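Replying to the earlier thread about multi-chain prediction with a worked example.

Input:
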Amino acid sequence: MSNPMITGDQASPNFFQRLNRDYSPLVVGMVVIFILVLLFGAVTADNFLTWFNFKTIIRDAALVGIMAIGLTFVTLSGNFFLLSMKETAALSIIAFATCMAAGWGFPASFVVTIAIALVAGAAQGVLIGLGGNPIVVTLGAAGLFFGIGSWWSDNLVISYRRPHGAEWLGTGSFIGDIPNITVAFIIIAIVAELVLRYTTFGRQVYLVGANRAAGKATGHENFGMAIKCCAIASVCSAFVAIAFSGQVSSAHVNYFSSEFGSSGDMTIMVIAIVMVGGNSIMGGYGSTLRTSLGAIFISTVDNMMVLHGFNSGPRVLAVGLMIVFSIIVFALVRRGSRAVE
Amino acid sequence: MEKIKHWVTENPDLAFAILLAVCVYSYFAVTEPLFMTHRTGFAIMERFAVLGLVGLALTLCIIAGEIDLSIGSNAALAAVITVRFTDQFGAVNALLMALTISTLIGMIQGYFIAYLRVRAIVLTVGTLMLLRGVALFAAEEKTVMLTDFRIPDFISTKMLGYFSPASLLVIFMFIVVGLFMTFTRYGREIYAIGGARNEALASGISLKRPMIIVFTISGFCAGLGGVIIGLRSGTAQALGLQYLLLAGTVAAFIGGVSILGGKGGVIGAAIGTLTVNFLNTGLVFNVTPAFMVQLYLGVLLLIVIMFQTGSRVFDDMQRRRQLLFDVDNRRRILAEKIEHYRKQVPR
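Result:
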């Protein structure tokens, strides 16, 4: 990248020059918007800037955030997104609750659930890696998983008794009054970011996503990459399912459908987070850090709108506007570069 | 007989679709005594009215090499608007308003997809959420209901044995779109940008026009489907109708479209939709819960995709093998020639 600063005095570029050099205008814009939203919230809503509300925001962001971090791997590797996140979670929650209700205890149920999600993700990954369109494959898989989940549970609520092994994950807290699911979100965010930045696998994800032809030429086929990334995404949604089941001590396939949370359907919410966080949907550009920040951003806006007394309609509308806005801005910024096609 | 053979080799996908449809129909006709009756035929045509529209819209999108994910939300929005405003402005006005809004939404989507040069899935996943928000807003987060039930009665009047006004309208729509796709330049352009986009752009077809046409038709179909569902059932939910996307995609893929675009057609869409409808209706006879229908549809879609990708992978392997074989062959010929010359020329 040619930069006048390098030819000029190399002594010390000031803050704005360094900002301009190291970060794209998109990131700067997002951060500015985030700060503006925070300020607006702080000024207009009375109880926005309290420790309790801050914890609520992060806790709301945690469940969808973990799923979104898993999905980021898929998106970064250039396989768009999985439309089956919610259904994988539904299948996992049924598996987990069935095992818990059968008295298997937490560790065994956890392993079984994760294994099921791993198989589900890898199966989708195989089809995607062979060259199937990710959207259509996962659309079909979504119907399949949801059907299996409903069939397994007979479309009933499965519940298990309160003192159970998953309580520490769902509602417990080890550190002061911070819920464990928040801690898990932060740990997963940090680990994912480290993996993407410093491990060979992480760099391969970026390579395959940024330039599939180059990846193929250097021996990094999309086949293995798609399997690994889909498995990661599925395991993340299974983890969320387990945590959620631990909170409510029960399971039903519809827990992650439109009734969940405020803003419509969980899959679309997760995709929204990945997009609003500023990851290129064509792959190769972005990070899980952005995804986590996107989750916190959406959750902040949602929280603020709740404090102002909005119903679910305007809130869904706001999230939708955020996605479309981020798509348009992203496309305009990257117009003319390779990442367009 | 010779003609049929020729036709089958010309259109293998369509032949497969017809075969599948006949198989599904005869399976249920044999196992369920009530399946092959006039009433069931009417019920199937009633289902065809909505699902056919969605299948048609998705077929067009996939022919153009894109996929419209926002179709369910668009239909839900149209349903909500129609049902909500029927009491205020009368059914016809409300219906026209909903159709106009849906068509405009489709047109704007198409314009932005062509202008920004993003893939349609990227933009439509955003509008999926956005339109759902608009629909929630329009319905005030409630299930809206009709008060005058003469309109649902009119929509489901039986005509000509199997048809109702709704399904006749949809069949007319199919014919018009089919003629448009086959015989007009604009229709052929849609095939061109789907099958070989770079080549089409290089030969001077603009991306904007076909894209806008495709998404306008898609928006119109989604809107009409939503209007029919809304008026027929008398109620509308802002978060409903999301199952349309899966069913429509299955119908389109059975009808013989390829995800790479440029393949398939309106007749295929009709047959694919009919197959899905036979399956749906037959499973209802079997007292199958709704989620099992979803499971079957998912499996069906995965099988079709597996076949498509499998055949593509197989083709690639075949081509590579052929290439390696050719290279080896030439090398051998060359080596023989060199050997030949060496013998001729003494050292």
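The two ends of chain B are 68 Å apart (CA to CA).

Feel free to reuse this layout for your own posts.
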